[in-house]
Specification:
Radius of gyration: 16 Å
Keywords: Isomerase
Largest sheet: 2 strands, antiparallel
Number of helices: 2
Structural class: alpha+beta
Strand order of the largest sheet: 1-2
Protein name: Putative Isomerase
Strand content: 5-15%
Oligomer: single chain
Helix content: 25-40%
Number of strands: 2
GO molecular function: isomerase activity
């Protein structure tokens, strides 16, 4: 728990605080463009080969395994 608190304190202290992918954060009340920028950075820095679910989707009836 203390590690989580320390990590969160490093990301920002505004309320609300949104954390994306444990790497990008948006602190305080921000316009939509700031959230979009954070999400775009997250996607740009992601490694799609790390995702075992890449390209798979589920229907309303569930997921095929």
């Amino acid at each position: 728990m203390k590690d989580d608190e320390s990590f969160a304190a490093q990301l920002g202290s505004g309320v609300p605080l949104f954390v994306f992918d444990s790497s990008f954060s948006v602190s305080g009340a921000q316009p939509d463009a700031v959230f979009l920028e954070a999400l775009n950075k997250m996607v740009a820095n992601s490694n799609p080969e790390d995702s075992s679910m890449m390209g798979q989707v589920c229907s309303i009836d569930g997921c095929k395994v």
